[in-house]
């Protein structure tokens, strides 16, 4: 068992995701026990990337549902293909099967059965995930905390029984149990009912060593000193009181920007020109003036001596 988890850890590293043991253990258990995995952590710590990389190494499809305020069941589960339904009705009319004149015992019911069949159904992410026939996909329900409580309640049937109910078609059960990963930035509290149905994983912002490992893994051509400076700088800036604390995504964006500008070390000018890669809030940018830049840079240089 431990060997399987270690193998999973090394395969994720090869795919560019540096995962500690608790992360790979949680993924292993979610797959083995066929239980959804709820992943929480600050924005930018790599929650979504877990699903992307896990699907990649499982060689299966990643089906993503991005949650938002106002997300309804039809956008997440299914919609009826209205043009196809109308086409079916018109075809019946052309065949002379006008319901009022048809010889069939219940022509209206027959037409209804046809226009509300699977052929006229548009699968949205949740339905698509449970109707896969070949391999169980990875279903990512991303930022579930952005959806409202009603949608969260709707998810319970899917997360516990891997089935959904469509009034016109009845209950549809998963042929292949998908590997379900849910992410949350904790913008609101999720219900106990949803939490009970899931395994749980918390991801902290990366420490210095992990951040450097991620930089080297994703950007193998990065200058070694620049990577060290970026790592120390990001560790320190996260200790400041900010409206939006930068995550690993910002670290990678910043490193790519500095490499694109052919910078091999940090200096006040380079930081000022590229600060928008790190800070994504007006108040943070305004508060982070030249003096703060010099202070942080001096701390980084002292650390590297």
Ordered list of secondary-structure elements with their pairings:
Layout: H1 2-14, H2 21-33, E1 37-40, H3 47-58, E2 62-66, H4 73-76, E3 78-80, H5 82-94, H6 107-115, E4 121-123, H7 125-130, E5 138-142, H8 149-161, E6 163-166, E7 170-173, E8 179-184, H9 192-196, E9 199-202, H10 208-218, H11 224-237, H12 248-260, H13 268-274, H14 282-287, H15 290-304
Helix pairs in contact: 1-2, 10-11, 10-12, 11-15
Output the keywords.
305 residues; 50% helix; CbbQ/NirQ/NorQ/GpvN; five-stranded parallel beta sheet; AAA_16; alpha/beta; AAA+_ATPase; Rossmann fold; MoxR family ATPase; 15 helices
How would you explain this protein's 3D organization?
- By secondary structure, the chain is α/β, with parallel strands linked by helices.
- The chain has 3 domains: 1-74 and 125-203, 3-Layer(aba) Sandwich (Rossmann fold), CATH 3.40.50; 78-120, no CATH class; 208-304.
- It has 15 helices and 9 strands.
- A 5-stranded parallel sheet has the order 2-5-8-1-9.
- A hairpin with a 3-residue loop joins strand 6 (163-166) and strand 7 (170-173).
- The longest helix has 15 residues, at 290-304.
- It starts with a helix and ends with a helix.
- The mean pLDDT is 90.
Could you provide a short overview of the structure?
The protein is α/β, with parallel strands linked by helices and 305 residues long. The protein has helices spanning 2-14, 21-33, 47-58, 73-76, 82-94, 107-115, 125-130, 149-161, 192-196, 208-218, 224-237, 248-260, 268-274, 282-287, 290-304; strands spanning 37-40, 62-66, 78-80, 121-123, 138-142, 163-166, 170-173, 179-184, 199-202.
